[in-house]
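Lab manual, section 2.4: Encoding a predicted structure.

Procedure: take the sequence of the chain (179 residues), apply the prediction step described in section 2.3, and record the output as structure tokens. A sample record is shown.
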Amino acid sequence: MTQIARLYGGSMYDLAAEEQLTDTVLEQMQAIRQLFRENPDYVKLLSEPSIPKEERTKLLDTAFGTEAERYLVNFLKLLCERGILGEYSGCCEEFTRRYNVDHNIATAVVTSAVALTDEQMAALKDKLEKISGKTVTLTQKTDPTVLAGLKVELEGRQLDGTVKSRLDGLSRKLNELIV
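Recorded output:
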């Protein structure tokens, strides 16, 4: 994430918090981010310097003016006018980061060889919430190289309960005993 994204995303968060709109703006920002990902040509169009700024901002008004929070629409227009609409994804990350800090939410990514069941995900979520003391949002990834066990990244910490990790630990202990 760039310094520009931190600055603009943080400023957007401050405004939304002041107006008590953080939940609404977060939801809408994520929806717009997804739309931009699905329609990269639209973002290119909005970033095209040969098209006058007024026309590009009018496109944003047409697309989001009646559906999105006015502060968010103005934020998009500002990014468009300044030629930094490409930073929008980073702005969303910073907004989400600040939201999570203020709402005591931790994000975790769990990696396993096969997809976990809903019951397993719920049990893991409960355990991680007890460890962190925060509400946890859990994202699941599958990686066939994991073989067995789970690898969890929670707030920058790695919790590695994979068979490979345990075997590596055993190997290190054996090497220490032999040497």
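Check your result against the sample. The chain is about 60% helix and 15% strand.
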